[in-house]
Amino acid sequence: MGADWIQGPYLYKLYNSYGLDLTQIAMLFLTGFVSGAFAGTAVGSLADTWGRKRICIVFCCTLLTALSLRLVNAYMLLFLSHVLSGLATALMYSVFESWYVSEHTSRGFPAEWRARTFALATLLNSVVAILAGILANSLVDIWGFKAPYVASMLLVCFVATTVISTWTENYGSNSQSKEVNLLKTLTTGLATMVKSRNILVIGTAQTFFECSMYIFVLLYTPAIEESINNAAGSMSANVPLGYLFSTMMLAVMVGSLTFQVMETQAKKGPRFCMQFTEDRLLTLALAFASCAFMLMAYQGHASTTTLLLAYHIFEFTTGLYYPSISSLKADAIPEETRAAVMTLLRIPMNLAVGVIMWHVDDMPASMLFSICGIMTSVGSFLVIAFYRP
């Protein structure tokens, strides 16, 4: 994740320096999401039979190539870069988690430790993101917008070396399949989803939240720059995006710490705290995210301070969201189809973001933020109404 965080804050600015406008940038984002929906699903689903460690290595090679292409100011190469990074992102958010859950189970660790591990992972991820944002800001000041991407490539090489040298292989069953059948794997995963109402509810909530999150990633930089420029009455704003990113990641860290405290209290604390189970915490995360997006929707009428507050509220909910959704998926999805189901769950999100990216030039940021607010509020309602522990 550090490799992702260090280059994330400056993607919009890098493409601006290449002379691309918001529509062209949105089309590159669209390419990544479409790639994740199809290529990512195909490759990620093979992890259950081909081996999750092996697919993690594929992720490293794919991301390394994508980052290399991103250093070249040629639109077709940037297009190819996003095809590869879309595939890599789909793998990053499904196969690594599948590998961990399987390893946790095979080593005989208690199931209740998974929620704590996911919360700790989110916390450490936030710390890494904070440091990455600060480092990215310094690298850009010294060497320019391409520097974080070179640093990201070095981190990916380190990850690949670690996975190859220290990880064990695991599969969706007790032994490696002799025949890898993609269609059968996807069909089995889809059947698992359809039979479980909880998986469908979790998947829908994931689609609404993460679709909103990726729209936020595209819009937060131009929105804050526009707000500052309007306040200053000029176009000279030079926002320290690395530092802004770090403070937002601090909010994520606070969210993950809140999850740890509430999850512990739900099991051992007073009666009032026992209601804060993972599904209730997910409901709260979605509800607060909706409020944050509605604040962002009024960016044209709100102060820069209000907009920044909304950004940080949303990032707090992200810290609450990830350990909650990961814990619920670990409980609901059976081991033999885990990677397939998790990659299938990302298809609606990728396609929904793709549709919105296609029309990003037709809608103002306030309308897009409003759509995000509606999606997260609907997600919150679905979880509280239909999820059954």
Automatic annotation (TrEMBL):
GO terms for molecular function: molybdate ion transmembrane transporter activity. It is found in: Cell membrane. It comes from the Eukaryota. It is a multi-pass membrane protein. The chain crosses the membrane at residues 22-43, 55-72, 78-96, 117-136, 148-168, 199-221, 241-261, 281-298, 304-322, 343-360, 366-387. This is Molybdate-anion transporter. Mediates high-affinity intracellular uptake of the rare oligo-element molybdenum. Its main location: membrane. It comes from Mucor ambiguus.
